[in-house]
């Protein structure tokens, strides 16, 4: 039984589809109701088993409900994929608004904390796996996206701490740190086709990762 947050589109969608194809029962969690339900429908058409739970991961009561629905529906929780996140490209640090800062950290690090907080109690006896999707912005300068970089550095730190704290319970906690992945969010956050292509050309081989690449990890 796998809960995947941000599973309506992009990396989360690819992960949900792959988990289902491998036989997992999947809880598709997202604020995006339309595409979240489309993901569930596609899993069903392929012979898989999935449900959709509308979830804003920055809201504790919604995260708690997400976990409770998962356990009530499928009787256990084996895997949590913390993928939900937002990226707001801004300007330099002194020009970042408090709203942009708070919104980014509320989703990208508070949301991940809440998902772990409410999921781990259901894994303590059986063990489990938590996979946190971080970013290279968490380990290098995040120019024009300082709040995103700070939140993703926090994801990496939280991952290391949780891995140490819960290893004795058979709970593995790992982070994936992708570079630029070709998703709707990546294309939108760059602001223009020209900027997106410029960033593609800066990569070795002029290639970008695909959502399925991260899902396979």
Describe this structure in words.
The chain has 217 residues and is an alpha/beta fold. It is 49% helix and 15% strand. The radius of gyration is 17 Å and the shape is globular. The mean pLDDT is 93.
Task: Give a quick set of tags describing it.
single chain, alpha/beta, 49% helix, 15% strand, globular
N-to-C order of helices and strands: EHEHEHEHEHEHHH
Largest sheet: 6 strands, parallel
Tell me the distance between the termini: 18 Å
Given as residue ranges, the uncertain stretches (5+ residues, pLDDT < 50) are: none
Task: Name the average pLDDT.
Answer: 93
In short:
This protein is of the alpha/beta class and 217 residues long. It is built from eight helices and six strands; from the N terminus they run βαβαβαβαβαβααα.
Set down the secondary structure blueprint.
Blueprint: E1 2-5, H1 10-21, E2 25-30, H2 33-45, E3 49-54, H3 60-74, E4 79-82, H4 98-119, E5 128-133, H5 146-166, E6 171-176, H6 184-190, H7 193-202, H8 211-216
Parallel strand pairs: 1-2, 1-4, 2-3, 4-5, 5-6
Helix pairs in contact: 1-2, 3-4, 4-5
């Amino acid at each position: 039984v796998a809960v995947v947050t941000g599973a309506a589109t992009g990396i989360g969608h690819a992960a949900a589809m792959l988990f289902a194809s491998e036989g997992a029962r999947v809880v598709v969690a997202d604020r995006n109701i339309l595409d979240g339900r489309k993901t569930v429908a596609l899993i069903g058409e392929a012979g898989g088993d999935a449900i959709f739970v509308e979830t804003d991961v920055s809201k504790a009561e919604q995260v708690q409900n997400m976990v409770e629905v998962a356990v009530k529906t499928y009787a256990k929780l084996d895997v949590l994929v913390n993928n939900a996140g937002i990226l707001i490209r801004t300007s330099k640090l002194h020009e970042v608004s408090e709203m942009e800062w708070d919104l980014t950290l509320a989703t990208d690090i508070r949301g991940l904390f809440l998902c772990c907080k409410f999921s781990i109690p259901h894994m303590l006896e059986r063990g489990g796996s938590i996979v946190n999707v971080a970013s290279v912005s968490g380990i290098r300068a995040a120019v024009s996206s300082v709040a995103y970089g700070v939140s993703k550095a926090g994801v990496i730190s939280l991952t290391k701490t949780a891995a140490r704290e819960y290893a004795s319970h058979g709970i593995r906690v790992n982070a994936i740190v992708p570079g630029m992945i070709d998703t709707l969010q990546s294309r939108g956050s760059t602001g223009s086709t020209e900027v997106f292509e410029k960033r593609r050309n800066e990569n070795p081989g002029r290639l970008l990762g695909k959502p399925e690449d991260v899902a396979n990890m």
